[in-house]
Amino acid sequence: MAGLSIQNVTKTFGTAKALDDVSIEVADGEFLAVLGPSGCGKTTLLRMIAGFETVSGGKIDIGGREVSTPQMNISPEKRRVGIVFQNYALWPHMSVEENIGYSLKVAGVSKAEREARVTAALELVNMQQYGDRRPANLSGGQRQRVALARCLVAEPRLVLFDEPLANLDVHLRASMEDEFADFHKRTGTTILYITHDQAEAMALADRIAVMDHGRLMQLATPRELYHEPANEMVASFISQGMVLPADVETAEKGGECKVTVLGQELVVRCRKGEKPRKNARICCRASQIEAVKGKGAGFDGTITRAVYRGGSARVEFEPEAAPNLGLHFDQPDPVSFEAGQRTRLRITSGWLIPAGEGA
Ligand SMILES: Nc1ncnc2c1ncn2[C@@H]1O[C@H](COP(=O)(O)OP(=O)(O)OP(=O)(O)O)[C@@H](O)[C@H]1O
């Protein structure tokens, strides 16, 4: 296996920039997800790593070897990069074994070696007993495992997954997530996994690269993205974080500072070296908002919606001081909030979004 180095890569189509100065280092054996909304440049990035698309600026190395620069593009078949697509692209008239061994046959690998490698690939994806089946007689998850085995049989240095679970139903997705995680643990394959599904990225990846409008917004562990988003885009994109205006009142001490949000003073976590400033933003989560009894610290407003979800309700709230700022939180059973009801809330904690980074 090999690491992947994407250095200051830019891609333009005519005058439009699909990727803008993106740098990502994937360590040997790492599982890195690229996550972002539609049109953020995920597919373009994958196509450039695979060699189907040239770079307009910057360079890409695989296993320490330069494969893409604006002047040079090593062809896809020489990169030893495996790709698993969302539509499995299996040959319907071939058995599972024939599908997996096809590329070896075309490459002139001997029958004995082919059989050994196909068996080993089937074992890697736990499909030993399905070698004789046709793809039509497999479930969606099994087909995806065959597609993975077909990619692994060529002994790639790096495997790219292009939204591999997008066509599967919710239950199958969960079990395939477990299988991919287990596969990664067993084999130590270097994986770059493209998805727009953050739950999937969080469940699987060591680190996640969040992209928006062709730019890298943050590259961090799932926990860091959730607890310490680098900018407003990441804060609101990951788990529907709420971004609220704040004034920073005190300098950082022990990783915390005092802020005023909607007239309420509170202590939030922050980066080292933060100083008092106006017009800052904090990110807070539904679990960091609670109802206040009486007139304690907090802010008044109106409940606009309460949707019961079994065990708790998602409650939406409009603060009096900033009606355009929709907040939401969960009220556990017994649910008492209703639309139209006036109440007082408080924010219990949050994260001060660093100044001037990305979006
Ligand atoms: N061949 C092309 N010619 C012109 N523009 C392109 C081309 N390929 C991609 N783009 C543009 O580049 C941007 C990034 O596209 P890309 O397909 O990489 O996004 P994505 O994140 O994969 O989106 P999705 O999740 O919808 O597949 C988009 O604005 C897209 O319209």
TrEMBL record:
Residues 4-238 form the ABC transporter domain. SMART domains: AAA. It is found in: Cell inner membrane. It comes from the Bacteria. It is a peripheral membrane protein. Gene3D superfamilies: P-loop containing nucleotide triphosphate hydrolases (3.40.50.300). Keywords: ATP-binding, Nucleotide-binding, Transport. Its main location: membrane. GO terms for molecular function: ABC-type transporter activity; ATP binding; ATP hydrolysis activity. GO terms for cellular component: ATP-binding cassette (ABC) transporter complex. Belongs to the ABC transporter superfamily. This is ABC-transporter ATP-binding protein system. It comes from Nitratireductor indicus C115.
